[in-house]
């Protein structure tokens, strides 16, 4: 069996993440923003949405090992990963477009939202588990896996960058498509999903996946899934660390920064784009340099640096937000953006490291048990990502309820809907929204700032502490495992 990573796969696989992560970035990063600024919901309705979103993400998380099981047992002439990548892509596109084209208000909207959100939890899992499950199948050597993972995360970062620029720029402010957010979100969703399809098609058509022996298919029950996970202590500890890290990472981007920036600097999506652009660009540079950094520094050294960088960035963001007067808007915004860049850079580094750490538990499982179980093990990362998303989403929505964000956003959504229905001019809408934001109490804005900086700091430090104590798969340990696995395989062939 060829264990090397081909040049074709090194490009064809990662490029698929561009459109894919654009769509994911729009759905996970801006659906709540879409709700806040286009739907006038009561406290009970908004609270119901928070319960629905958390329940769906928890369900989604527990659905991941099941999907990993299904993929592991899949045997087709196209491979075991490609069919699910294609099916999940097409179905996800349908759900995403419908989610940003939902015309209803009130409890009807809540009900339709709930159905679509749960469906998304199922169909995107098909794509996500299959896509990331290909990594250890395409690259078995540590160096190859580092190259493939870093390049994939780079292209994913490109997709997230594009989503972070396109979605806010064209859905709020002077460049809003159609003059209102309702029209704009629908048009942007269609455009983003079109790119999702095109880039995933490239991966499906161009990647050369090893076709497994048709006789290898095995029905795997839930009991085995949990036995595999429970029997891999490094997978368990790695998953816990990744969960805590991801909650901290998601808090800023899951809506808190959007509301904070709009309340502080005005209803301008372009400013929100600029806020994230530098961080994304810095992250892209880091991804390109990651392989060289891995050769120069140990994983423990990189994990330490990657943890303390965002801690410093978040604390700087807090200091700037509280200390710099609002009369110096340009200075304040620039310093906040630079602080976010620093935080984003460190978090990108840690994310890359955790991708590799979790991937390496495949070999750890093979070293301990003689079985790789790629599909099952690789379902753990998205499992933890989605569980983290559930926790982060719940925290964000509770923060919104406690701080009273809806009193402002409901007013904005009423004017967006009025503009969409032709009941007011675009100029009238802009003036009324500006008046609303000028009246936001400073306590609301500072409350958002404290929550989106202090909570991530605490969580990032907790994840790093557990990593140092419990995760043992260093570079040296990994090479030892690979050597011993090869020796066992050689002995088996000899016998």
Structural write-up:
This protein has 495 residues and is mainly alpha-helical. It is built from 18 helices and no strands. The chain is globular and about 80 Å long. The model has no long low-confidence stretch (mean pLDDT 88).
Specify the helix fraction band. Answer: over 70%
Q: CATH-wise, what's the superfamily?
A: MFS general substrate transporter like domains
Based on CA atoms alone, the radius of gyration comes out at 23 Å
| Shape summary | globular
Give the distance, in angstroms, between the N- and C-terminal Cα atoms. Answer: 18 Å
Q: What is the oligomer described by this structure? A: single chain
Element-level helix/strand string: HHHHHHHHHHHHHHHHHH
CATH fold label: Growth Hormone, Chain: A
So how many helices?
A: 18
CATH architecture: Up-down Bundle
Q: pLDDT below 50 for ≥5 consecutive residues: which ranges?
A: none
Count of spatially separate domains: 1
What's the gist of this structure?
Helices cover 82% and strands 0% of the residues.
What characteristics describe this protein?
495 residues, mainly alpha, Growth Hormone, Chain: A
Write the layout of secondary structure elements.
Elements: H1 7-15, H2 17-38, H3 43-72, H4 82-99, H5 106-138, H6 142-169, H7 181-206, H8 222-230, H9 233-265, H10 269-296, H11 299-323, H12 329-369, H13 374-378, H14 380-403, H15 406-420, H16 426-438, H17 442-470, H18 475-494
Helix pairs in contact: 1-6, 1-7, 2-4, 2-6, 2-7, 2-9, 3-5, 3-14, 4-5, 4-7, 6-10, 6-12, 9-12, 9-14, 9-17, 10-12, 11-12, 11-17, 12-18, 15-16
